[in-house]
UniProtKB/TrEMBL annotation:
Alphabetized InterPro entries for the sequence: Nucleoside_phosphorylase_sf, Pur_nuclsid_perm
Entry protein name: Purine nucleoside permease
Classification of source organism: Eukaryota, Fungi, Dikarya, Ascomycota, Pezizomycotina
Organism annotation: Penicillium capsulatum
Role this protein plays: Nucleoside permease that transports adenosine and guanosine.
GO cellular component: endoplasmic reticulum
GO BP annotations, alphabetical order: nucleoside metabolic process; transmembrane transport
Length: 398
């Protein structure tokens, strides 16, 4: 009898603790954390843009997740766990490792979570200017190519970057890795853009003055001379931090080639394709939903020099551009509008998801559907060697 009473008392106590935890917005240890929005930051300055905000305390909970970077070992969450944040560490390897550790963790239920990549980037002055927030449909891994030092190029080549398996820069690669291009939900992107356009973006006198260098008679860089705004355009991923007309122009072309002419290159980053490949794989296992991804990059510096300047000046004196500080501020200024929009519209729209009208996924059609970029699913798989491996047949290349 005493044993039964002790068990009953224990169960009542446990129930009381769980009820109190629920009332305080906490999650008991045996309940998975199911954030509505997961902010993906790449390094501490981007992450800090969201910290110490009144009524939006991302540091209310710090959740240690095995596999995260030793520099950023915790996922941060608000008190009610509706919004969480991870910090990948910079570069593709760090991004892939960190996001995989979260996406495949048993700590979280991410089946309805919106992943919001929110970082800074270099920017194409033909498309927009420093301080702007860009929202992508395509992420293109532009440096996944052959490379010949430009000093050893044949005279009829304009760039040292050549798609894998091809012999010219304007040809589609025939050796396919699968991470070259990702396409996210355009309908969701457009909704996020509408939210972000409610923001008042930060600017600075230094940035305004520097933009005047892009004023030309032909108006090629007119977009660079204006105030920060919200722009729909696409992101390039490269671990190489590049600068200059030649490289930026080459990767602008790569974006067009790999997206069959649809992509519109404007921002340069180091992590996005790695992040997206992980979320694609986790979505294939029904752990995440690839149609719930938003990619926002705010412009911290120009990817190429203004007329009359050098590529090295553009790279080594980027601080003269005045874009870094305002880009960090605008991660939050634009980003909070997106986050709040999702939270406010959760019951009405976002819990059920935003139906994509475009193709969503990778070049292989991993999640179903036919990619609207690349050589087609079967040709891409052929180029990857997948068919050859299945048939144990080695094809000779000329």
């Amino acid at each position: 009898m005493q044993l039964i009473q002790m068990l009953a008392s224990s169960l009542m106590l446990a129930g009381t603790i769980c009820a109190e935890a629920s009332a305080r917005g906490l999650t008991p240890r045996d309940e998975k954390i199911a954030p509505k929005v997961f902010i993906v930051s790449m390094f501490e300055p981007e992450a800090q843009a969201w910290w110490n905000i009144h009524d939006f305390n991302l540091l209310a909970h710090n959740v240690t997740v095995p596999g995260l970077s030793s520099l950023y070992p915790n996922v941060h969450c608000t008190k009610d766990y509706e919004v969480c944040q991870l910090i990948t560490g910079e570069g593709e390897i760090n991004a892939a490792t960190t996001v995989a550790s979260v996406a495949f963790s048993s700590i979280f239920d991410l089946t309805k979570t919106y992943f919001f990549v929110a970082g800074i980037a270099g920017v194409n002055p033909k498309r927009t200017t420093t301080g702007s927030a860009t929202f992508a449909r395509y992420a293109v891994q532009v440096a996944l190519q052959y490379e010949i030092d430009i000093r050893e190029l044949p005279k009829n080549y304009s760039t040292g970057y050549i798609p894998l398996g091809a012999d010219a820069a304007n040809k589609y690669p025939t050796l396919i890795y699968g991470t070259e291009v990702f396409e996210v939900n355009e309908e969701l992107r457009d909704i996020a853009v509408d939210f972000a356009r409610q923001a008042k973006l930060a600017d600075s006198d230094t940035a305004k003055e520097y933009r005047k260098h892009f004023e030309t008679s032909g108006g090629e860089y007119k977009a660079a001379t204006g105030a920060p705004g919200i722009t729909k355009c696409d992101v390039a991923t490269s671990d190489v931090y590049y600068s200059g007309q030649l490289l930026a122009g080459a990767f602008e072309n790569t974006t067009k080639v790999l997206t069959n002419g649809t992509g519109d290159y404007c921002s340069s980053a180091q992590e996005d394709n790695a992040t997206l490949e992980v979320l694609l794989r986790s979505s294939a296992h029904k752990l995440t939903d690839f149609s719930r991804i938003i990619i926002m990059r705010t412009a911290s510096d120009f990817d190429r020099q203004y007329p009359g300047a050098s590529a090295s000046y553009n790279l080594f004196h980027a601080s003269d551009q005045g874009g870094f500080e305002i880009a960090l501020k605008n991660i939050y200024q634009a980003g909070i509008q997106v986050v709040q929009g999702i939270l406010d519209g959760w019951d009405r729209q976002f819990e059920a998801g935003v139906k994509a009208r475009n193709y969503v996924g990778d070049i292989f059609g991993t999640l179903g559907g036919q990619p609207d970029f690349g050589p087609g699913r079967n040709a891409a798989l052929e180029g990857s060697g997948a068919f050859k491996k299945r048939s144990f047949h080695m094809k000779r290349h000329a």
